[in-house]
Amino acid sequence: MDARQEKYEQGLEVLRQIDGEAGQRVIDSLADISPELAHQIVAWGFGEIYSRPTLPPRDRQLVTLGILTALGGCEPQLEVHINAALNVGITPAQIVEAFLHAAGYCGMPRALNATFVAKKVFAERGLLPVEN
Questions:
Q1: Using one digit for the tens of pLDDT, what is the confidence trace for 10-65?
Q2: What string of H, E and C letters represents the secondary structure of 55-118?
Q3: How far is it, in rounded angstroms, from Cα 121 to Cα 112?
Q4: Chain segment 83-101, per-residue pLDDT in tens
Q5: Which residues are CB-neighbours of 55 under 8 A, at least 6 positions away?
Q6: In this structure, are residues 103 and 65 in contact, taking their beta carbons and an 8 Å threshold?
Q7: CB of 95 within 8 A of CB of 118?
Q8: How far apart are CA 120 and CA 104, in angstroms?
Q9: Are the CB atoms for 14 and 53 separated by under 8 Å?
Q10: How far apart are CA 61 and CA 82, in angstroms?
């Protein structure tokens, strides 16, 4: 196996641990339009970045949620990463609190959009109502 394939395999394992089926669906959805983008997400995003030991997966997900909220227009990616946050042990109340905190920095509309994505994910996973 060459280095490119090794990094992909390493990234795929990390992707499965963190994002589960949601991450795999994103990769699969790129197969007929940009398989190279899918490869880079797995090999670089997960094989290089998410694999780094300095920040644990829980912290990486909180950072990711904050960034996607601040960017706005990233609701599909927020859905994947809210699921990932739950997968790595962040509670629904902590996710909601992160979005409330983000409102002060990126505005109410973006915090609302993120919160409504969380509501959708929580409903699908049977996690409503959220207890604070």
A1: 999 999 999 988 889 999 999 999 999 999 999 999 999 999 999 999 999 999 99
A2: CCHHHHHHHHHHHHHHHCCCHHHHHHHHHHHHHCCCCHHHHHHHHHHHHHHHCHHHHHHHHHHH
A3: 14
A4: 999 999 999 999 999 999 9
A5: 63
A6: no
A7: yes
A8: 23
A9: no
A10: 8
